[in-house]
């Protein structure tokens, strides 16, 4: 169990900004897990496939086209792994396993309008396994949901085993399309760890940049810096019903995606696009700040906020967090030796490693599940 092995993680998140592929060595399980990044790369989505993913998310694809997309994404993910291996003189068959999160096109964490909790991530694990000739672990969220959880967030288990510190109470935050946090009290007891989605991350900002400037994101927050606050728009975002829910809670494009953002832009079209970007960014940062104040600082004195994900590169947003959460020390996972861009790809390697040893890897205190369960489906290659 302590023998080091080579594994690969594939992550494509709600921000749709690319496919993160990381190869790492991993040994041990649970609190004895050790992982070290070897090489990683972000691959762009081909335009035609990206458009299909967006149509699927917007419920505008026929069932047969969704089924086809499941295979297309599996082939694309396999191609990314094969290319990364080839570029680094590795064979995909030398990997002990591949962990693939898949592309979420729908996630409903709780019963809603008579519909049971459900989730769908596309990118067939069996297709990836067949093309890479390697065992693949995928479809991580369902087991937690059947155990009464919301199927998200799953990374808190990894935060707990890799980033707990007996001398510091830490918040680990990932700012992808959605922002989520894991609270790690310095007690280091698993039962004391909790996590939840705070609300939007880059999602609304990225859509607005695409809408106004035909750019995928606001580099360093430079566009947002040029604008001024639109108070009515800010207030409308901060009054979103999700923000008032008690943890554990999860959200996605269903709450803060294209439909929501497009409607906001339409209502405030008479303002400058820089003002809209400024307001979306400030409001997004403040949803994070208010979640931390309301659900964390009333229980703990926090020493560090450690951030990963694409949001780390938005210096305007980071400055907002540093200013409004002072005196908490705000830093990135890069500052403590863990890649901020590939943390989630590495995290799914850890989750898949647990699966291969038939050990649980959800945190019931984070997802709301009734018990800890083994996550994922395994597609073996023989």
Automatic annotation (TrEMBL):
It comes from the Bacteria. Gene3D superfamilies: 3.30.420.40. ATP binds at residues 13-20. It catalyses: 1,6-anhydro-N-acetyl-beta-muramate + ATP + H2O = N-acetyl-D-muramate 6-phosphate + ADP + H(+). Pfam families: AnmK. Pathway: Cell wall biogenesis; peptidoglycan recycling; Amino-sugar metabolism; 1,6-anhydro-N-acetylmuramate degradation. The keyword ATP-binding applies. Its EC number is 2.7.1.170. Transmembrane segments: none annotated. One of its GO terms (biological process) is 1,6-anhydro-N-acetyl-beta-muramic acid catabolic process. GO terms for molecular function: ATP binding; kinase activity; phosphotransferase activity, alcohol group as acceptor. Keywords: ATP-binding, Carbohydrate metabolism, Kinase, Nucleotide-binding, Transferase. Belongs to the anhydro-N-acetylmuramic acid kinase family. HAMAP family: AnhMurNAc_kinase (MF_01270). This is Anhydro-N-acetylmuramic acid kinase. It comes from Acholeplasma laidlawii.
């Amino acid at each position: 169990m302590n023998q080091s092995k080579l594994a690969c993680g594939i992550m494509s998140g709600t921000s749709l900004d690319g496919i993160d592929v990381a190869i790492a060595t991993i040994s041990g399980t649970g609190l004895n897990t050790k992982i070290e990044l070897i090489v990683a790369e972000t691959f762009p989505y081909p335009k035609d496939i990206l458009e299909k993913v967006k149509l699927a998310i917007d419920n505008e694809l026929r069932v047969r086209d969704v089924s086809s997309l499941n295979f297309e994404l599996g082939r694309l993910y396999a191609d990314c792994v094969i290319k990364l291996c080839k570029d680094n003189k590795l064979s995909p068959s030398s990997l002990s396993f591949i962990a693939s999160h898949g592309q979420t096109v729908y996630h409903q964490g709780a019963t809603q309008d008579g519909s049971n909790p459900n989730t769908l991530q596309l990118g067939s694990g069996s297709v990836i396994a067949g093309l890479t000739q390697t065992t693949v672990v995928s479809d991580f969220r369902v087991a937690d949901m059947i155990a009464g959880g919301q199927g998200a967030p799953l990374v808190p288990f990894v935060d707990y085993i890799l980033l707990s510190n007996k001398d510091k109470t830490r918040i680990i935050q990932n700012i992808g399309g959605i922002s989520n946090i894991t609270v790690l009290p310095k007690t280091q007891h698993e039962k004391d760890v909790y996590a939840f989605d705070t609300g939007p991350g880059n999602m609304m900002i990225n859509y607005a940049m695409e809408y106004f400037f035909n750019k995928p994101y606001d580099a360093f927050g430079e566009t947002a810096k040029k604008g001024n606050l639109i108070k009515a728009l800010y207030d409308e975002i901060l009054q979103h019903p999700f923000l008032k829910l008690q943890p554990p809670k999860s959200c996605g494009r269903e709450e803060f995606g294209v439909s929501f953002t497009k409607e906001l832009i339409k209502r405030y079209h008479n303002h400058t696009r820089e003002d809209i970007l400024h307001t979306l960014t400030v409001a997004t940062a403040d949803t994070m700040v208010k979640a931390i104040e309301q659900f964390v600082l009333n229980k703990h004195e926090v020493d560090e906020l450690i951030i990963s994900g694409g949001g780390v590169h938005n210096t305007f947003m980071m400055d907002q967090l540093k200013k409004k959460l002072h005196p908490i020390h705000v830093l990135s996972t890069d500052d403590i030796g863990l890649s901020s861009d590939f943390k989630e790809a590495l995290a799914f390697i850890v989750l898949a490693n647990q699966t291969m040893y038939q050990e649980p890897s959800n945190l019931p205190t984070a997802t709301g599940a009734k018990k800890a369960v083994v996550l994922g489906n395994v597609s073996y290659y023989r």
